Each structure stands twice: as structure tokens, then as C-alpha cells.
Amino acid sequence: MQAALSATPAALTIELKPEAIMTGRPPEPLSRDAADLLAAPMADDLRRILGEEIADAGLVMPAALYDLTELLQPGLPMVEAMLDIYRGGLRGGPFQPQLLTIGSSGGRFPDAAIAPLRRPGSGPLLTVPFALVAPGPKLDELSRKIESTLLEKGSASLATDRAVRQLFGVDPVHLSYATFNDLAALMRVQMEHAGFLPLWQLIESALYRPDSIERLELDTHQFFATGGQVWTTWMSFDEWSATRALEAGEAVEGYAQWLQTQRQYMAGLQSHGISVSVTPNLPGLRADDDEVALSVAQANSLEAEAQWLRERIEDQMETAVEAAVITLTEQADPQVGPFAYTALVQSRDGHLLGLFNDYPLQPAAMQSIINHWQEQASRLDAVFHLERPGRVICHGRPPCLQPWLDYAGSA
After folding, report:
1. Burial of 278 (0-12, 13-18, 19+ CB in 10 A)
2. 354 and 277 in one domain?
3. What string of DSSP letters covers 115-132?
4. Both 146 and 238 in a single domain?
5. Buried residues in 197-226 as b, exposed as e (16+ CB within 10 A)
6. Most-buried pick from 10, 330, 383, 395 (CB within 10 A)?
7. Looking at the structure, do residues 389 and 329 belong to the same domain, yes or no?
């Protein structure tokens, strides 16, 4: 009985000048014919670096450029996809070493699950991933050799350099080969240099320790990672302000910095394919026991499709049929842009029926919040005001968000 096939992943790394990728997308995937032209010199490189025993393994390669975040994802789906494609190429027959390239046809990639995202600003290190495939016992020794020698001896040949330049139309600074573990180590160094080592710890946990609980508390930021997913606490302006003895201007500046970090961490996790769930700020999340705190986060997290988090300051909406005016104030800071919408619901005699702060969890949610309150006003036959003062309206000690009430002019 033939042993099950295994795959050892690696990549050709293509280092570009930072200014070369800041404004555009990475190049499109190669056609099938062009894919073969790239794979041939790469296969020669691997024989030179690893020895002729590589001929006992198959090689599968998607002919496209990927950002590191697309490869380093929980469960390494890229590796599983490459292995599945290689199995499919055998058409149910016994294992045979072969060179299998994946190229586009008619501008479309054959497997949408591993099609390159080509996100603007990707890089400056891009990769062409590949996997060596063979029955487990055959691959074990080669895998050990790859891990110990590929990065050290893995400079690409001039032929590979020329193929990359001509086929992708890029101007590499350096080309070399690396394992996925090497790529992870490299990303750790990059993130530490940029001041995001705690973020890497969350990503690393999702990649390599999915059964453990990784808890990160960074000032008033809080994250829990387990099972390849992350839960994070969201603090409103009022909640954050209550933890500081600051004047209004200082509170606005401080919260903008908090929000910017929160957005960066969430975007960084999501770029690695890590699901991030948001939960309101609750006392139980500060429990000393990690499992208890995680269970509170999981039990109270917002639905996956939730677009915003609502903070209820005053809620008498059961009498909302009396509503006459709904005022929605866009709270915006130059550093982070609009970050909350304060909704004030009043009756015909000026009685307060509702006061809410809605926090968009993604940019598209800003318009969704506006649409929601417009629809509420229409349903209640109330006058709707959308006020954009271009700044944060907050008062009190500690400062709290407030609606804009100067109807004399347009904010």
C-alpha cells in the first residue's frame, strides 16, 4: 500500500524596492505557458541547492506573486491547496514525480481559493510559493535538508532572475529561496522592527499553537487568540476617557491613538486570514483566569456580520412613536477620520427618548449607520438631521461624546 502523500512548502522570495510597490498592485498571474518558463529555471535551482535526490519528489507551483500574509495563514491553506492540486494531477494513479505549474487561462486563475489577492501596497517582499510532494517516508529526509540548507544556500540563479524580470515585469533587488518557517521568522523580525511584536505573537499563536490560549493586554487593548481565531475588546470614547484624567482635547487625541492601534491590529490579523470578533467592554474580560476571560469574550461577541457596535447612553425607544427629531452627529478626528455617530432621538416636546453612540467596525459601516437612522426617521415620520462638524463634540469630566445641537447653521 502506497504511503500518503505529503508536501513540504517553500517559496522564491522577490525583494523589491519599497517605492516600486507603494502605489500599484502586484502583477497578474502568469499564463500556463509562461508558468512553465518560470518553473524550469526554478527547478534547476532546487536541484543545485538540494541535490539530485530532489528528482524523487514532485514539484507544484502557482505562477503568481503573493504577499507573505497570503501564505502565513492558520492551517496553511496554500499548502493544502497545492497538495490537493498535485493529487488531482495524478488522476487516481500511483505517485509519479512531475513538475506541475498552475497558470491563468483567459485572465482567470483555475483555483479561486489560492488566486493571488494582489492587494495594493503588497510587499516589498513578494513570493512565488511552491511545494515538494512525495509519499511521507520519501519526503522526510528531503524536508529536513530543506529546513537546514535552503535559506543558507538558496540564492536564485541568473536564469531565474531573468525569468522573473521578463515574465512579471518587476525589478527585483534580491531573489532567494526560503521555507515557510523561514518566512515566518522573517516576518517576525519585520514586525518587531516596526514596533508590532505583540501583534506577531497573536498571529504566531494562530499559526502554530491553535489549541492554546494567547492573551494580549496592551494598555487598554485586549485580544484573545485560540483555534486560529481572535476576540478583541472594543472601547468606546466614553469608556476610554473614563480611564484617564484628561481634558477634552487630550482625550480626543489619546482615543484617536487608541483607535488607530486597534484598527492596525485588527487589519493585521485579518490580512493573515484570521477571523476577528469584537466584543463590548465587559468586566469579566479582565478575569485573571484566561479561560474564563475568553469564555466571556466568546459569549458576548458581536455577530460575524455586525457592522457596528452600539453604546446606549439613554434608551426609551419603546416610546419612539412620539419621536419628532433624530439628530445624527458624525464624530471625526483628523488622525483617524469619522469614528463614531452620536444619535439623539427627541419627542415633539423636546423630551429625550434615546442617545446612542454607534461605532463603525469597518469603513463601509459608516454609510450603513447613516442609512439606518435615516430609515428610522422615515419610519417614525421624524425630521432627520445629519451634522458633520468636522471635529469631535465632547464635554464633561471625564469628556463624553455629545450631539451637535446648533441647528442655526449646517455643521
Report:
1. buried
2. no
3. -----TT--SEEEEEEEE
4. no
5. eebbbbbbbbbeeeeeebbbeeebbbbbbb
6. 10
7. yes
Longest pairwise C-alpha distance within the chain: 87
H-type alpha helices, 136-212: 136-153, 158-168, 180-193, 197-208
Residue 287 cell numbers, joined: 478575569
Distance, CA of 185 to CA of 378 (rounded, Å):
55
Nearest of 258, 194, 250 to residue 232 by alpha carbon: 258
| Cell numbers found for residue 116 | 493571488
What DSSP character marks residue 273? T
pLDDT in tens, the chain (411 residues): 467 899 999 999 999 988 776 567 889 999 999 999 999 999 999 999 999 889 899 999 999 999 999 999 998 999 999 999 999 888 888 888 999 999 998 778 888 888 999 998 887 899 999 999 999 888 888 889 898 888 888 899 999 999 999 999 999 999 999 999 999 999 999 999 999 999 999 999 999 999 999 999 988 899 999 999 999 999 999 999 999 989 999 999 999 999 999 999 999 999 999 999 999 999 999 999 999 999 999 999 998 888 999 999 998 877 667 889 999 999 999 999 999 999 999 998 888 999 999 999 988 899 999 999 999 999 999 999 999 999 999 999 999 999 998 755 444
Compute the CA torsion angle 197, 200, 202, 204 (nearest 10 deg): -130
Name the residue range of residue 155's domain. Answer: 5-193
**Closest by alpha carbon to 347, among 306, 318, 309?**
318
Q: Which of 227, 267, 270 is nearest to 75 (CA)?
A: 227
- For strand 229-234 and strand 275-280, is the pairing parallel, antiparallel, or unpaired? parallel
In a domain, 411, yes or no: no
**Residue-level length of the chain:** 411
Report the candidate in 132, 155, 149 with the shortest Cα–Cα distance to residue 86. 132
